[in-house]
Amino acid sequence: MKGLLLISGGFDSPVAGYLMQHKGVEIIAVHFSYEPLTDNSPELKSKEVSKILGFKKFISINISKDCEDIARNCNHRLYFVLTKRLMLRKAEEIAKKEDCEFLITGENLAQVSSQTL
Predict the structure, then answer these.
(1) Could you tell me which residues come within 8 angstroms of residue 59 by beta carbon, excluding any fewer than 6 positions away?
(2) Using one digit for the tens of pLDDT, what is the confidence trace for 64-113?
(3) In sequence order, which residues have a C-beta less than 8 Å from that of residue 88 and are 6 or more positions away?
(4) How far is the first Cα of the chain from the last one, in angstroms, to the nearest whole number?
(5) Which residues in the chain belong to E strands, given as ranges?
(6) Would you say the C-alpha torsion 68, 91, 58, 110 has a positive or negative sign?
(7) What is the bridge-based pairing of β-strands 57-62 and 102-104?
(8) Residue 102 dihedral angles phi and psi, to the nearest 5°
(9) Exposed e or buried b for every residue in 6-40, given b needs 16+ CB within 10 A?
(10) Distance between CA atoms of 99 and 92, rounded to whole angstroms?
(11) In DSSP terms, which residues pair with 104 in a beta bridge?
């Protein structure tokens, strides 16, 4: 079984990947970079933690241009919803190419107990 982890520079997504990995899921991690809109420290942290946790593959995709286009053309109240949608669409494309069966995020990690994993 293989899953695509949307990994950020934060804490929740690597933990979600780690928990799924320990349930027998092969993890491919994808990071969406905003550089040069932000620095590359989240990408570097994501790459390093992917290596430490032994994820099979790490992919980084720069979406800064797409995010600029969204910001320029959208109702600003919808910016974060639209950029999240962008990342999920791109992740779905990658998952298909990598033969992943599902996407993994750390968004609801605090609500999930280890018993349900």
Answers:
(1) 28, 29, 30, 31, 94
(2) 999 999 999 999 999 999 999 999 999 999 999 999 999 999 886 555 54
(3) 6, 103
(4) 14
(5) 2-6, 26-33, 57-62, 102-104
(6) positive
(7) unpaired
(8) -160, 165
(9) bbbbeeebbebbbbbbeeebbbbbbbbbbeeeeeb
(10) 10
(11) 5
